[in-house]
Structures are given as structure tokens and as C-alpha cells.
Amino acid sequence: MNKIVRFSIVLAGIAVSAVFTLSCEKDLPTRADYSAYAYASLDANGGSWKPVLLTSPDQITVPAPADVNSTAYQDELAVLRLAATNRTAEEVAAIAYWTNNPTLRWNEIALELVAKYNLIPGPNEDGSYTLPNPADPGATPNFPFAHPPYAVRALAYLSVAQFDGLIAAWHYKFTHNRPAPYAVDNSIPAAYTDNQLPSYPADGAVVAAASRDILSAMFPLEKDYLAEKAAEHMASLTWAGVNVQSDIDAGAFIGEEVAKIALNRAKTDGMSKAQCPKTVSDSIKTAAFDRFGWKWDNVESPPRPVGLTPLFGQVTMWNVPTVEEVRPPVPPTPGSPEYLENEQELKHFADNMTSEWRRIANFWQDGLGTYTPPGHWNRIAKEYIIKYKLNPLRTARAFAYLNMAMMDGGISCWDAKYYYHYPRPINLIPGFKTIAGTPNFPSYTSGHSVFSAAGAEVLSYIFPEEGLIFRNWALEAAISRVYGGIHWRFDAEVGTAQGIQVANYSINVAKNDGSE
Amino acid sequence: MKHNILPVCILALLPLFAPRVKAQTPSDAIMMEPRQFCGVLLYDHGSFDQYWEGAKLRKNGTIETVSRNSGLAMFAYGVVGQLNLIAGLPYVETHSTEPNGGKFNGANGLQDLSIALKYRFLNKQLGKGKLALISTLGFSMPVSNYLSDYRPYSLGFGAPELSLRGIIQYELDNGLYARTALAHLWRGQTEAERDYYYNNGSYYTPWMDVPNAWNYHAALGKWFFKYTLRVEAGFSGVHSVSGDDIRFYNAPQPTNKTVENLVGASAQYYFNKPKGLGVLGYFNRVIQGRNVGQTTGFGFGLTYVFKI
């Protein structure tokens, strides 16, 4: 029995050492690693910038704040003093999480919801497909299917509402110049860097309320989760000593009002008709075939009867007057020399796949279950916003123009996709296999290329020193689809040019919005 | 004692019990004598046309039937006394059958190198049979840059694994035996080629945590014909201790919580002539699982034992 004892001791010893060996695994980051910072600029004239949807910043009116010497204000300060002396661990964590640029967090929350809902409906037992139903979002499949057009649109409305709301907030902040609580009462410790930003109305509350309301409309099943997030965010403003309740109330009011205005536009922008019925989809396909002599078909098993959002190309654009004026030229006819050259190249990539091509294909894939290509560019924007320490207003502006340009790019791309209805490589090359999933819509032009080029152009405008990096990434994202075997090179190259062209409309608006 | 009459080599049990995941450290009770060397060449095949998405068994026309073929080279060596050294390396190939809707390329390449130490603590006559207590300590790691984040075609989970296993076997003098084994598998992180993924929330990193797992195993077997034929049937399971489920109609990923319970049977025969040569074959089937394919598999191979 002595041996059995030894057996057990050795087993236990090895187990302990094994646990030690593997317990030094890296902690995996679940969000951007940044904390409150000193803004690179304050933009005291931000209230005079041109909003996107508001006719003027005082279209939403909030009352003048009570004087800092008033009883009402002093009572509000007392609440903050108490909060500061009794911060719980949760409150400290919330203060650290939200920071003094919470727009970044709300963007991050939006990306997470996109990834959560970016699940394509699967077939039913009988081979039919059921579409998500906005009137019954909890039914299977859940609403929404947050595919790239859906995602970029959600991000655009989110960012535009945040931007317009913050322009209004800046307008009132520098009209009333109410100092921050910690500046009025030095017994209130400021949790964040003192940026000399007037506190009424609370910019954090504008962003919290607007984000909550836009995202609740876009992701209705997340209403409770978003309400909880917004409540914590607004409460953290008092815990952090940066806003009193009347600052927060006024900010939340602006956020709610601006969200209503944005959602009104969303209701009538044509998105609800984008996923058209089969009859319409078939007539679009027939029209393309009559015009060009080719058509794209879904070859999944069982085949999907309608491609993804055939009428997304008719959704109202932000900064481009008509989608026709940015429609790219006709792609090469299958069988033509230019086409054959493209086909040869795809076969070459597939037959000689290198680890570098594979890495690029996977890095930019941003496929089902992820935050999509527009989400990827929002993530990139976030990293540079932190690097350049933009203030909340400039942050919202960067996201607003980025996402408007990418949504316009997506609309233009989808117009081309269904106007030309060009087949995918797996449709035309017999026996062709891919390392990326072929999406459920026509090939020409490449959505990744358009989204990425548009995103890179706007980011290059916002961060000119980084332009080369952004544009190279956009080119890499574009060619990644060719490496993946799901796009022709001309889809990528024309898509890149299209993205740049479309983005310039937004950049021209941005250049004249009074912020330069 | 009787085993020494013939050279015996049964590491080939490894693919029988956790076949589609990777070559595992052995869960059998056979030991090599000092300076005895055993080489194994094995072919393994598995395929499935249904898989568990979470707890729900489903079909998927986009991948249709996924097949996996492996060639495995292994050896075991009696180092000294009751200690064996075992190593193995599989080459794996995966693909979907035609026609399928996804038209995905399969994958192929060398998978993970496994190295294990096997130590017999006890081998003692107890009543009408012999009781053996054995432990294995194993380590494996990928030896090629295969992409683990390419399920269901990926060759493996792409992370280092440390395993510790305890094995108890009782064998009657008439050759009938029962064996059970329990192992814990510590699995590290695997590197994807994207730096964002969703695992019940956002992850901003290419590193994915492959869940640790328990592996259990039970078998009944018997020797026939003067210890030249061994027939065995068993049950085995691998259970992740954490992880997420495959999402609706979505691809699996290395972070998934996998459960794989399978039954199998094997037979091995050792020739008198040429001395040292053996053949084996097996069949197995996943009977219940979570986030894995409902795989049916078989394999066959050659073993050869000689003294250095």
C-alpha cells in the first residue's frame, strides 16, 4: 500500500506544478485599455459647429441652470460630497470604466451588440428561411441580423446623435459656463483630469441618453441592458464629482431629444424596405441579366431565396446627393481577357496560399459573429482617438463622419452590387473552393473595400499624420477578399476607388462644419 | 508476467478515446520493458453530417459531411524500470463532401507533437488477478502553423496541453480485465489570425482561451489465444470545464465548451511470426456531445516491437 500512497503524492505534486505552469496565461482584454485623460483641445466654440440633423444647437432648449450659490445647487453639491466619501468598489470601477470620454465606451458597446446579433438566419427543417421580424424581435431568428449594412447604419445614427447632442451641450456649456462641482467645492475630489469644461449640461448624460435610445431602437432585445448601462453611466458622473443632478437631467434631456430626431430620420430612410420580397429580388436579377447577360445566384444549401438587402442601395444617403453619381463602371464580362486574368489570379492564390495571404484574409474577414468591417474601422478610430486625446465632442465628430461616410459607401456599394448583379468566384469557377465564407449578395463591388476605403479616407482627414497607415490598411482589407477567394480583384480595386470617392462628400461637409 | 511471452504494444488505443480532437496520451495499462521499443503506424478516419450547436443536434448544408483523415506515427520506449516514454505526431486532412453550399477549402498538415511519460506504480497479484496503478504525464503542442480558428476544418485546437492521468486496471488470471482512467487536461491559449472575437462578449485580442477539460474512460476487455488477441469495448468522454456554445448557425471556435461522449471497440492481434508484429483495428461513435460533430470513426494500423 506504500506504493499507492506514493502514487497519490506524486499525482498531487504533478497536478500542482501543472496548474502553476498554465496559470501564467495572459489576461485577455475585453475592452479598450484607457483611462481619463487631459483633452488635446477644449473647443469652446463647439456650440457653433454645424450639426448634422439639428438646424441649430438651440433647436433643443434647456433652461438656464440655477446659480452655484443657490440652495438648490448647494443641495446637489451635498449629494456629491456624500458620494465622494462613500465610494463603493462598484462605484470606483464604474468611474474608471466610463472615463471622461464615454463616447468611446458607447461605441464599444454598440460594436459588441453588432457582434452579438451578426448571426445569419439558418434554414428551417423544410429548407425555407425565416427572416428576423422587427415586430417580434424575440422570435427565432432574433431581430436584428446585424450584417454590415445594418451595422454601419446603426453606428451612423448612434454617432450622429451623439455628435449633434454634444454640439448642443457645448452650446449651453459655454453659454452658461457653470463650473464643475469640484471647482465650486474643493472638498469634492475630481475623479477625472480637470479639463475646465463647464458642467451644465452634462456631456456624459447627453451621450448616455442618446446612445441608450438609439441602440435600444436598433437592438430592441437589449433595451433593459442598455437602460442599466445608461443608468450606471449617469450615476457615475455624480460619483466622479464631475456633474450635479441638474447637469445630468439637462444632458439626458438633450440626449433623448436628439435621439428622437435621429430615429425619425431612420424610420423613413428606406432601410425597412431593403430586405425586399422574392418577387422584387427576382425582377432586379432579371433586369441585370437582360442588361448585362450575367446574374449572381446564392448557392448555399438550401439556397437562400433573396440576397442580403437588395434595396439597401436605395436607402437615403447622408452626404451624397444621388447614388447614381457614384455608381462605378461596368465590370469585365465573364470570359473576356480581363475577366480571365482575374480568374487566373484567384486560382493562383487558392493553389499557392501562403501564410501571409491567409493571415490577411482572416485578419480583415470580420465575418459573421463579429463587429463587421464598419465595426473594425470604428475600433481603429477609437484607438487613434485615444492616442490623440480627442475631447468628447471631437470624438463624436470623428465617429459621425466616419460612419456617415461608411454608410454612404455601403449604400453606393449595394447599389452597384444589385445593379450589376455580378457573380462570385464560386459561381463562375468550376470546383473553386475558398478559405472565407462567400456572402449572400453579388460580388461587384467589394463591401469590405468600399467600407474600408471610405473609413480610411475619413480617418486620414481627422488624423492626417496617420493617413498612410489607414490607407494601406484599407488596401490590405480590400485585397484580403481576393486572398479569401470570394472577390475578384476588380471588385476590390473599383470598390476602393468608390469608397474614396464617396467619402470625399462627407469630408467636404466636415471641412465646412466650423470645427477647423 | 504472461505479457512478456509476447511483445505487446497497445498505445494505439489513444486515437480510440478522443479521436477527433488530437492524439492523446495513452489510457491503456500496457508497459514496455526496459529497452523495448514499440513503433506504431495508424490510419484514422472520422466523419459527421450532424453536430451539436450547444445541446441541439443539427444538420448544416453549408458544410454537409465533414471528413477527417489522419495518419499517426508513434513510439513507446521502456526507459528504465517501470517508466515508459511515448511520443506521437499525426498528419491530419479535413474536407467537406461535395456537394455542399459553403464551398470551403479543407485543411491539412502536421498537427500536435505529443510526448508523455508513463509510470507504473503498482503491479501486484491481488486475489485471482493483478492490480495495476499507472499514471501518465503528457504534454503536446502544435508543430505547424495550422489555424485553430477555422472550425470545423481546423486540424486541432492549436494550444499547448498538459495532461495528467491516473489509470487503474484489474486483470483476472484468465485474461479478462477492467480498466478505468481519469485525466485532467490543462489547455493553454491559441492564437487566431484576427484580433477581435465574440465569446459571450467582446475580446480584443488574437488569443483565445481553450477550455481545460476532464477526460474519463472505462473499458472491459479480454485476451484470447494465449495472449495473442485482445478484444476490448469501452466508453470515454472529454468534458470542457468552461467555454461558450456555438451560436445559432454560426461557426464553432476554439473557445467552445465541448463535450464528447463516445463508445468504441477495438481488437488487436499479435503474430507469433514475424515476432513483434501486431495489427489493430477499431471503431467508435460519438453518442452524445456539445459543440462537436456526431462523429463516427474507425482506424487500423500496425505495431512493431523490438528490443534495442
Q: What features would you describe in this structure?
A:
- The complex is a heterodimer of chains A (516) and B (308).
- By secondary structure, chain A is mostly helical.
- Chain A has two domains: 53-267, Vanadium-containing Chloroperoxidase, domain 2; 274-511, Vanadium-containing Chloroperoxidase, domain 2 (Orthogonal Bundle), CATH 1.10.606.
- Helix content of chain A is 57%, strand content 0%.
- Chain A contains 18 helices and no strands.
- In chain A, α16 runs parallel beside α18 (489-511) and α17 (467-483) packs antiparallel against α18.
- The longest helix of chain A is centred in the N-terminal third of the chain and has 29 residues, at 148-176.
- The mean pLDDT of chain A is 95.
- Chain B is mostly beta strands and 308 residues long.
- Chain B has one domain: monomeric porin ompg (Porin).
- Helices cover 0% and strands 57% of the residues of chain B.
- Chain B contains no helices and 19 strands.
- Chain B has strands at residues 36-48, 51-53, 56-58, 66-80, 83-96, 107-110, 112-126, 129-142, 161-172, 176-187, 189-191, 197-198, 202-203, 207-209, 213-224, 229-240, 259-270, 277-290, 296-307.
- In chain B, strands 1-4-5-7-8-9-10-15-16-17-18-19 form a twelve-stranded antiparallel β-barrel.
- In chain B, β9 (161-172) and β10 (176-187) form a beta hairpin.
- Chain B starts with 35 loop residues before the first strand and ends with a strand.
- The model of chain B is unreliable at 1-7 and 11-24 (pLDDT under 50).
- At the A-B interface, α1, α4 and α12 of A face β7, β8, β9, β10 and β12 of B.
